[in-house]
Description:
Helix content is 63%, strand content 0%. By secondary structure, it is an all-alpha fold. It has a single domain (29-116), classed as Plant lipid-transfer and hydrophobic proteins (Hydrophobic Seed Protein). It contains six helices and no strands. The longest helix has 20 residues, at 2-21. Helix 2 (31-38) packs antiparallel against helix 4 (53-65) and helix 2 packs across helix 5 (69-86).
Amino acid sequence: xASSAVLTKLxxxxxxxxxxxxxxxxxxxxxxxxxxxxxxxxxxxxNGGSIPATCCGGVKNLASSAKTKPDRQQACKCLKPxxxxxxxNYDRANKLPSACGVDYKINISxxxxxxxxxx
Length: 119
């Protein structure tokens, strides 16, 4: 009987721990997720022209997915090397959120220090 009571208490403790820890253990954005969101923008970022609706949808999705300082720093760490490797126009990239009606301020540049990106 005593072991049954201990087991019940242990299960209860594990359940309470999961409730407390789970909201704080949310998975951070991955580079794959970040890049998938902004890939519809690639043509515009390289060549200009009109901004595709799917691009603005991706920018909005990124802004809503990266609300915390660590998430924005992670997004920066993903976007910085991708921007360089794809040869995008940084001016277009930095005006894109505003053009899509999104308040998202990460000014991507070849020299940005992603650890300085703030919430």
